[in-house]
């Protein structure tokens, strides 16, 4: 099969190189197919790595991991305290919108029969 692709001037060494290259490429494609990556798992791995890098940076800036953890906790606490009232208001508005939509729906009159 490889011999058919090469012309009549090809030597045995050329045929061996072509066979070796074809086997190598086939092996690469087989191995690549056996190690398919899941996009969600890869995303979570990248996010975890980024969080680790940020924590290492904070530890280097603050001089210790405990102070870096305190900085992270403080920032998370302030973010939660700012977001909680907005989430509560959005939920209340959604509930009121559902009640208003339910009140706006009028029952159809029963057909005279």
Name its key features.
about 110 residues, 4 helices, mainly alpha, flat
Description:
This protein is mainly alpha-helical and 113 residues long. The protein folds into 2 domains: 1-36; 38-103. Helices cover 81% and strands 0% of the residues. It is built from 4 helices and no strands. The protein has helices at residues 2-5, 12-34, 39-62, 65-104. The termini are far apart. The model has no long low-confidence stretch (mean pLDDT 80).
Short description:
With 113 residues, the chain is mainly alpha-helical.
Q: What's the topology here?
A:
Blueprint (H helix, E strand, L loop, with lengths): L1 H4 L6 H23 L4 H24 L2 H40 L9
Helix pairs in contact: 3-4
Mean pLDDT: 80
| Beta strand count | 0
Listing every helix as H and every strand as E from the N terminus to the C terminus, the arrangement reads: HHHH
CA-based shape: flat
SS content category: mainly alpha
In terms of DSSP E residues, the strand content is: under 5%
